[in-house]
Structure formats: structure tokens, C-alpha cells
Design goal:
Mean pLDDT: 92
Distance between the termini: 63 Å
Strand content: 15-25%
Low-confidence stretches: none
Shape: flat
Protein name: DUF4145 domain-containing protein
Length: 233
């Protein structure tokens, strides 16, 4: 078997085959609460990039699709699991260039590291990371993130502006208790990861795009200066 895959360590896009992929399933019953046989499936992938070769390990807990008296049978839908654990890497953070300020990357990396363990805390860190980007990239500083985002209206697309407000509002769930403490508003793991994906979009569209543009413009100026120097000779 073979499939397309992107390494979470080096972001290398590749095709994974039998040389880089292995899995094992341990099935058991043991009078568990699901009243059926369960299977713990571990999947190991080794990055084929010679400069990386890092190990990715995920484990999945499945409930057998057969009755308990029959042998364990894994569900056809691989996403139909009871629980999933990412053992390696410890975080799904992507590598980003060092010209993005370290405090901003630290908040991003921490948000990624706890998105499964504490989605609300992850959302709060995503909110903090967003505020750091607005203050650094746009040089907008005010008393609240709400005011800082409002100052961006008209400077970014309406869709981006609405998304910035969404990150702020969802991050507030983790940062502030509801007025009625009996009202429980949770942030799910997949929702926290969507906020993180928004941060990644902003890294690309703000910092990386600016760096690449500046590099190209600088190269043009270097070419001009080189041509001028030739004329002087």
C-alpha cells in the first residue's frame, strides 16, 4: 500500500510505502464497559526525507463491529474510533521561520501542544498569539484585543477580519468565566485546531509573504547596483 503524507516535523510532502510504514493491532475483551472486543491499533510512519527521518506514532482504540462472542473485526471507517492518541510528535506545530518573533512562535507552539489535552487553554493561547501578531506586524496596540481588531477593519479582507474576531471570541471562552457559572461553554479539540490553522494562515500571509516580497525587491535592487557598478568601470 502507498499513500500521500506530509511530515509533521519537516513539512516534507511525500509518498509513504511499506518501507516507511507499519502497524499492529492488539485486541482484547476483559469485560470492558463497551461489552465487546476492543482493538488498540498503533501506526508508525518514518519520514523518508534523509534530512529528517523522524518517527510519527498514532494509536487508535476501536470497538469491534462483531458481537462479543466473535473475533475482533475493525470498523471499515478508520475514523470511527473511540479515542485517538498522538504519541509522536508531542505537538502538531508546524516549523516556521525564525524571523517570526520568538514570543509569538512560543504561544503558537504551546497552543498546538495542548490542543487535545485542554482545548480551552489552547484557544486562549491562540487568542494571545493573535494579539501578539497584530501588535508586532501591524504595530497596533490598544487597551483590548477587541479595539485592536477593530483598528484593522478595512486593512484586511472582511473574511479575515471576521475570522480574527472569531478567534478573539472563542479565546475568551477559555480566558473568562461565564456570568452564569452554571452555563458551560466548552471548546472542542477540533475547534481549537481550527483556530491554530487560522494562526498558520496569518503566518503565511503576513510574515512569510512579507519576507519573500522584501527578499525579491532587495534582489532587484542588488541587480541594479551591480549593473551600475559595471557601467562605472
Amino acid at each position: 500500500m502507498s499513500f500521500r503524507w506530509t511530515c509533521p516535523y519537516c513539512n516534507h510532502k511525500c509518498t509513504i510505502g511499506d518501507k516507511n510504514f507499519d502497524y499492529q493491532t492488539h485486541s482484547f475483551g476483559l469485560s470492558n464497559k463497551y461489552k465487546n472486543k476492543l482493538g488498540l491499533k498503533s501506526i508508525v510512519i518514518v519520514c523518508p526525507n534523509a534530512e529528517c527521518e523522524e518517527i510519527t506514532i498514532n494509536s487508535y482504540l476501536y470497538k469491534s463491529t462483531n458481537y462479543s462472542e466473535y473475533p475482533y473485526t475493525e470498523p471499515d471507517n478508520q475514523n470511527d474510533y473511540i479515542h485517538k492518541w498522538t504519541l509522536l510528535p508531542h505537538s502538531h506545530a508546524k516549523p516556521f521561520p525564525s524571523y517570526i518573533p520568538e514570543p509569538i512562535l512560543n504561544d503558537y507552539n504551546e497552543a498546538c501542544a495542548i490542543s487535545d489535552l485542554s482545548p480551552k487553554a489552547s484557544a486562549t493561547l491562540a487568542r494571545r498569539c493573535l494579539q501578539g501578531m497584530i501588535r508586532d506586524y501591524w504595530e497596533i496596540t490598544d487597551t483590548t484585543l477587541y479595539k485592536e481588531i477593530n483598528a484593522l477593519e478595512g486593512k484586511v479582507t472582511e473574511q479575515v477580519w471576521e475570522s480574527l474576531n472569531a478567534v478573539r471570541e472563542i479565546g475568551n471562552i477559555g480566558a473568562h468565566m461565564e456570568k452564569d457559572i452554571n452555563v458551560i461553554v466548552d471548546v472542542e479539540s477540533d475547534e481549537a485546531k481550527i483556530l491554530i490553522e487560522m494562526l498558520e494562515i496569518l503566518f503565511e500571509e503576513w510574515y512569510i509573504a512579507r519576507h519573500e516580497r522584501d527578499s525579491k525587491l532587495s534582489r532587484i535592487q542588488q541587480i541594479r547596483d551591480h549593473k551600475k557598478a559595471i557601467k562605472v568601470q
